[in-house]
Amino acid sequence: METEATPFTDIVVQSRGDVSMVERGYAREKIGRARKLARAPVLFTRVDLALEPDPARDQRASAKAEIDVNGSVVRAHVSAETMFAAIDALEQRIRHQFERAAQLERSKHLRHRDDSESEWRHGSAPARRAASFPRPVEERQLLRRKTFSVSPRTVDEAVADLEALDHDFFLFTNTATAQDCVVARAADGGYELVEPVPSTSAGDAMAPVVASPLRPSTLSEAEAMSLLDLGDEHFVFFLDAESGRGRVLYRRYDGHYGLIVPSDDGRNR
Description:
The chain is about 25% helix and about 30% strand. By secondary structure, it is an alpha/beta fold. About 35% of the residues are buried.
């Protein structure tokens, strides 16, 4: 792993594999421009570039960024066939995240919902996400458990967190219902809210959120893994069979599993 600090002390570029000095310099320039869209002081920026050695592998170049915006972390992760293409995609995704955050902030100050909806531009994110490694089912393992804060959030706040973290989904406790819920990206560029029990929360949100007809099932971890293996979905939202709390099992970029649980779940370990 090569690490290179830029002339700006708050930017660090790290690389793995056959990444050239020119590509690292290109990343500094592009991400440096994109972060100017931040609406608060940028305290630190790190860019990770990786090039897989197998030239036959699809999208073997990946680029990640982590930007500390006045204490709030913005992350992005994309992949492409070449490193230059991955860096371009990373810049687009960061710009997209900052623009979405600005739209959400503006919408909070609008009095009427019809006006707030016009602030949101529909359409899928401009950059291609990093693809998961096609690991055979028999080789997949649960490698990571992560916790989410039980501090309640509104649906709009959950959407903002999803965008800042560059996730496809976000598990949270809904302020309005006290339920563990998931907000996820929809195909049209908006969002879907998945709830154990239906409520009006999606309709009350400023962001373009629709209520999903899906309901989380009560499953064991093994059952959730089997369900995830059956389809093309990247995650499964389910209720833990013992605690009743919401959990999300997801497919990591390396093809293994990750699990997200509430930090106050008694079964969290």
